[in-house]
Amino acid sequence: MQNETGENVDLYVPRKCSWTNRLVVAKDHASVQINVANVDPVSGVATGEYTPFCLAGYIRFKSEGDMALTDLVQKNDSQMFAAPAE
């Protein structure tokens, strides 16, 4: 919920799995949030910024966490380094 100025006033905002868009509930102790560093495409050095990815325990239980994270990072890279539209 937001107030009149547009600020978020909810006490608890649940996370969503980046792969399945499932809500990650507070009792899901198998879920993880991984911050992947953004890299400068020219120099290959980390820029100090990062992109967070959240994986639900359901994905990790099915042993698909590695595949999900790899695919999410590859999709993020293709969006970041795509040529700007002219």
Describe the main β-sheet briefly: 2 strands, antiparallel
How would you classify the helix and strand content by structural class? Answer: alpha+beta
CA gyration radius, whole angstroms = 16 Å
Indicate the low-confidence ranges by residue numbers.
none
Elements, N to C (H/E): EEEEHH
* Share of residues in strands: 25-35%
Topology record:
Layout: E1 15-16, E2 23-24, E3 32-39, E4 46-55, H1 57-61, H2 65-80
Q: What does this entry look like structurally?
A:
This protein has 86 residues and is α+β, with helices and mostly antiparallel strands. It is built from two helices and four strands. It has helices spanning 57-61, 65-80, and strands spanning 15-16, 23-24, 32-39, 46-55. The strands form two sheets. A two-stranded antiparallel sheet has the order 1-2. Strands 3-4 form a two-stranded antiparallel sheet.
Describe, in short, the structure shown:
This protein is an alpha+beta fold and 86 residues long. Helix content is 24%, strand content 26%. The protein has a two-stranded antiparallel ribbon.
Features:
4 strands; 86 residues; 2 helices; alpha+beta; two-stranded antiparallel ribbon; two-stranded antiparallel sheet
